[in-house]
Amino acid sequence: MSELKLNSLYQQLILEHYRSPKNRGKLDDATVSIRMRNPTCGDDITLQLRVDDDEMIEDVRFYGEGCSISQASASIMTTLLMERSLDDAMQIAARFTALMHGDEHAAKDRSLRDLRALQGVSKFPVRIKCALLGFDALQEAVRKTRGEPALEA
Amino acid sequence: MTMLETAAGATPLDVERLRRDFPVLDQEVNGRPLVYLDNAATSQKPVQVIEAIEAYYRSDNANVHRGIHELSRRATELYEGARKTVARYLGGVDPEEVVWTRGTTEAINLVASSWGGANLKEGDEILLSVMEHHSNLVPWQLVAERTGARLRYLELNDDGTLRLDDLDELIGERTRIVALTQVSNSLGTINPISEIARRVHDAGALLLVDGAQGAAHHGVDLTSLGADFYAFSGHKMCGPTGVGALWGRRELLESMPPWQGGGEMISLVERDHSTYAPIPHKFEAGTPNIAGAVGLAAAVEYLEKIGPAAILAHEQDLTGYAMERLQTLPAIRVFGPEDPSMRAGVVSFVLGDAHPHDISTILDSEGVAIRAGHHCTQLVMKHYGVSATARASFYLYNTRDEVDRLMDGLATVHSIFA
Description:
The complex is a heterodimer of chains A (153) and B (418).
Chain A: H1 2-9, H2 12-19, E1 32-38, E2 43-51, E3 57-65, H3 68-81, H4 86-100, H5 104-107, H6 128-145
Antiparallel strand pairs in A: 1-2, 2-3
Helix pairs in contact in A: 2-3, 3-6, 4-6
Chain B: H1 2-8, H2 15-19, E1 28-29, E2 32-33, E3 35-36, H3 47-60, H4 70-89, E4 98-101, H5 104-119, E5 125-129, H6 138-147, E6 150-154, H7 167-170, E7 175-181, H8 193-202, E8 206-210, H9 214-217, H10 222-225, E9 229-233, E10 244-248, H11 250-255, E11 266-269, E12 274-276, H12 290-306, H13 308-326, E13 332-334, E14 346-351, H14 356-365, E15 368-369, E16 371-373, H15 378-384, E17 389-393, H16 400-417
């Protein structure tokens, strides 16, 4: 049982994104940059977006360090954000958060694409915050872009 | 040093028998027998401690020092008796020099706030080391900010020992207090406190020793250690959480202002001022953790029966074995002194690309509990250029078989991440 659970956590796709993350690096012309840290475990992600006047995400990068789950989750997330609106981004973040909290409908949601590989994390309660770190940064970035007050982490 | 010599010649522990005292160890986690290797975070509790706390609540519970009735007398006797037991464990110090606290953190905060607030001024220096736990850093940062005192740091050698060659340069006439750990919680290093104490005192400064790991994993004799203050927690040495103590030299404690005000700590209260109780009660405002003190005394009696030297020798045997086996793994990096006799039962490591949290999750899936993270020592992590390490820490009930289980788990880590 625990071996199965472990295999569902460390899927090949996750390990690939951990080893060779997509969109890793810095944006020179970012319109918003958010750093999120998880003080209990040291995961650290900075997410940068370039958002145009119509709230479309033109480019995205992230950097930082942390466990395979936090880094792979952020990497996969960035692949879904290119050329999407901030509304879409918030929608993805909400669906993914539901997936992490065990929502079965979210698990079947095709719009989450590769993020569904992270479904196994929901069986490891202490690791859910690792998977959500990049999405916390994303939601904060959207709020900041829209001039809304930041949520206290 | 004498402690180490004794440790080498100590009688081996009857671990199988001792394990039966710890009910929590007898369980399966994720389908495998639990291997608990997170003892530097907190130790498990023997039935002797659990039963002492239960017996106190079942038959003796009352508030201390104020009732005239029988239960209050008994509770006070148990509470003050526990203080005597702890004083004996610390090397036979005066029980009036033992102040109950919630643990090491509160004990250090008490000194930083009370002694520091009354004695530190602008230009004074506080010497710490980068090896310190955050609980022996942040209280000093707070008092430095308040008083204008300056923080200085003793650096680390790459082998996990302190750069003692720098001591003479770092301790000067502006140095008022030096605060160092006896045993590093992230590297396992045992610091030569007595030697350091001589040099601190030659410069006219005081020495506070963080004994959170030391009291549990090394044993302590405050009559020869050379400390002026010593802080420790009960929960790392088989006692309950939420209780620990500060030991301080009488004249220091007597000269220090009270820290918190309330009941217990006063002698006479008038409208605009009060007079305070003598030490140690001056520092014990409010109803204390009576059951915690009773539990800690039971833990001390348990450890005394086994003998701190034998416990350290057992931990060092496991540490040596673990280090030897870890070195056989490809891409392993073990932190801290190479010589197991220079460390307590703590082994920190990183393994290839596998992040310590992933290591911990994989080990947990096989029933092996370790700690992953910065271990509240971010300055140590910075020194080594890592954000986190995996840490296995041993205690009197761990076995070589359990080290083998750790190694089996690390083989799984390797198979996933290699």
